[in-house]
Amino acid sequence: MEQIKKERLESKGWKIGTVSDFLELTPEEAIFVEIKLALSRSLKDRRQKMMTQVELASKIGSSQPRIAKAENGDDSVSVELLIRAMLATGATPKDIGQIIASVG
Q: Largest Cα–Cα distance in the chain?
């Protein structure tokens, strides 16, 4: 954000910060959120090249709406589901580890 805009907002009583500040996340919680988002983005990229959401859902015993939520970073989706879906798209544990390692 431009310094002038920041100063103007602060002068009107607005507080400037990060999402982590607003949600009062610990550093560990913020990293966990980033990991889930990275896995979600990667899942969507991989899946779009290979199959439909319906096909992936069938492959892992889930539903299309659940896959859509997983790909969009919905906080109700577990890391377990993200990893199972990634593996079903052919990702290896090493691929998943690299995604996680890229966060931060």
A: 54
Residues 6+ apart with CB under 8 A from 64: 53, 54, 57
User: Would you state the structure tokens that stand for residue 52, as one six-digit string?
Assistant: 């439909």
How many other C-beta atoms are found inside a 10 Å radius of the C-beta of residue 50?
11
The residue that leads in pLDDT, 104 or 92, is 92
**Residue 103, both tokens:** 């966060």
Type of residue numbered 13: G
Upper half-sphere CA count for residue 80 (Cβ side, 13 Å): 2
DSSP 92: -
pTM: 0.79
Residue 33 in tokens: 């959120």
Whether the pLDDT of residue 10 is over 80: the answer is: yes
Question: For 2, left (φ over 0), alpha (ψ -120 to 50), or beta?
Answer: beta
CB-based contacts of 86: which residues, under 8 Å, 6+ apart? 39, 42, 43, 46, 95, 96
